[in-house]
Amino acid sequence: MSTEHEVGTAAAHRVVILGAGYAGMAAAIQLAARVRRREGVRVTLVNAQERFTERLRLHMTATGQRLAEMSIPELLEGTGAQFVRGWVTALDADAKTVRLDDDRVLHYDTLCTGWAVWPTRRRCRVSRTTRTR
Predict the structure, then answer these.
(1) pLDDT at position 38, please?
(2) Could you write out the three-class secondary structure of the chain?
(3) For position 117, what pLDDT does the model report?
(4) Mean pLDDT over all residues of the chain?
């Protein structure tokens, strides 16, 4: 997989969204819809699992109700957004890169974090400049 997203001969503006919860999914789908007709914008959604978890409905599992299985790649199908499965292990704001657990490196021009919590040092190495922004 190429980590340098390009459209045609011009370099694409790369938007990377971290986390596919409600906020991350909404950001990816809505942004992809807004830039769909524009050449040169790539939207990539990164999440550790391919399954979308409806956190607002998790209480239903306590009563034995089954939740619908929703695949993130299927939910993004036709939107123009790309899905990448992986755990984020490092962010570097100076280099504008995101490193995943399989050592893939995604380059971005715009980064959006849909994480519900800020990553801890044990799980994700974050450059000093990222924390101050």
Answers:
(1) 79
(2) CCCCCEECCEECEEEEEECCCHHHHHHHHHHHHHHCCCCCEEEEEEECCCEECCHHHHHHHHHCCCCCCEEHHHHHCCCCCEEEECCEEEEECCCCEEEECCCCEEECCEEEECCCCCCCCCCCEECHHHHHC
(3) 54
(4) 80
